[in-house]
Amino acid sequence: MLVHGSAGSSTSMHVLAKALSKAGFAVYALDIRGHGDSGIRGEIGYVGQLEDDLEDFVHAVKPASPATLGGFSSGGGFALRFAGDRRQKLFASYLLLSPYIGYDAPTRRKASGGWVSVGVPRYVAISLLNRIHLHSFDDLPVIRFAIDDAAERLLTPTYSYALIENFEPLRDYRKNIRAAAQPMRIVAGQEDELFFADQFDGLFKSAGRPVPVTLVPGVGHIPLTLKAEAVAEVVRAKEMMDARPEAQTAGLILRAAQSHPSRQPVFAANADAAGAQAGGQ
Questions:
Q1: Residue ranges per domain, the chain?
Q2: Alpha-carbon distance 219 to 73, whole Å?
Q3: Cβ 236 vs Cβ 248: under 8 Å
Q4: How far apart are CA 233 and CA 219, in angstroms?
Q5: Which residues contact 252 (CB under 8 A, 6 or more apart)?
Q6: Chain segment 6-32, per-residue pLDDT in tens
Q7: Which CATH class is domain 2-102+165-280?
């Protein structure tokens, strides 16, 4: 089950989904609520709704076991959030693809490489109101992505306070990491423009939850889901977790990727509380 990155939709995961399908896996690429065709773009009803949506979707489609939740960029951060949730055992494993960890994490480049701008005064004001349990302004936009007018038809240019708070790891990301008990791996491009990819290994070790981290040489952020060598490495990571999840060795791995045969269906779906819909792509 694949979760797209910030501002994106299920279509951005189709190259990766098709590669996993060819390797023999049934794949669901989701439009997370507030993106693509799922709900009002840039908005959700409350913080925690995305986890509720995902739980509903899993119960509706009953994915084949062992099921893996994979997420790219902000989707990887959300996958980490779910991996530390009380419902984490809905998935047998978690695959984080160049995941967003937090604004103060050592993996984050300043302004995420220019991709995102934050309305700091509004964000701080709504955060303070949330501390006294006032949520009337959670639907106001607080961040904008570097998207031109032509791309706004396909992408989500802004996030509300509720959406940005939900579509990422918990604020205490170290506690979030420690709470994730299921097998987990990270794959990232060595030339990632948004994150310091070489810091993932040390970050997870320092949080007390070391995981295997694979860096793909010559690959940037978006190409991680598009370039053949990177996509093949993601497929390899899924295969390794399924083969011997209990025997995964933590550490930093640098290697070229391979291609894989076979074929399974690929599905695109809306993940929302109203229900789960899957259509062949």
A1: 2-102+165-280
A2: 14
A3: no
A4: 11
A5: 198, 201, 213, 215
A6: 999 999 999 999 999 999 999 999 999
A7: alpha beta
